[in-house]
Design a protein that fits this description.
about 65% helix, about 170 residues, 6 helices, mainly alpha
Length: about 170
């Protein structure tokens, strides 16, 4: 059982331990799907909706180049899953051993680092360049709410990564 009282169960942890990269890939897929769904629900708590699949589709193909919004969505969702899986594998292979705290704390700290990269560079300079969002998105039309939503999205993802990936070596 992890220190915050949450555990995915011994059978799950045994399977992940015997499939280290595949386990991390499955964990990345699960965490990305859950966080993505919840990002669509953020409006219910006063934060902007975060439709990353649509944003990713617009980024890789340009919003006006797709034959349909559905094609843009699925292209973006594919990219979104790849990102979630790759960053989960990087967490397990590289970052987890270097971060302090319990497994869950490590996942959350890692997600905060990803948030800083996302709101400090990726979103303002890759997703919405020259649109005046500014560093950490504070100058956008939603003010503090967009960076808060991106942080919450990443923390949900990191919490799930830390909960589902708990190897016995205690790193």
């Amino acid at each position: 059982m992890s220190k915050v009282g949450i555990d995915a169960g011994p059978r799950w942890h045994s399977w992940v331990a015997s499939h280290p990269v595949g386990g991390l890939a499955v964990i990345g897929l699960i965490a990305t799907q859950v966080a993505t769904y919840l990002g669509y629900c953020f409006k219910a708590i006063g934060l902007p909706t975060l439709p990353w699949p649509a944003y990713n589709g617009a980024l890789i193909g340009g919003a006006d180049t797709w034959a349909s919004p559905l094609a843009q969505y699925w292209a973006g969702q594919s990219m979104h899953y790849v990102n979630g899986i790759v960053f989960a594998i990087l967490f397990g292979v590289v970052a987890r051993a270097k971060l302090p705290g319990s497994h869950v704390i490590k996942g959350v700290l890692y997600s905060v680092i990803l948030t800083i990269v996302s709101v400090g560079f990726l979103v303002p300079y890759a997703y919405v360049p020259k649109m005046g969002y500014g560093l950490f998105l504070m100058d956008g039309p939603d003010g503090w709410k967009l960076p808060a939503g991106v942080l919450l999205w990443h923390v949900i993802w990191g919490f799930l990564i830390g909960t589902l990936y708990q190897p016995k070596d205690n790193n």
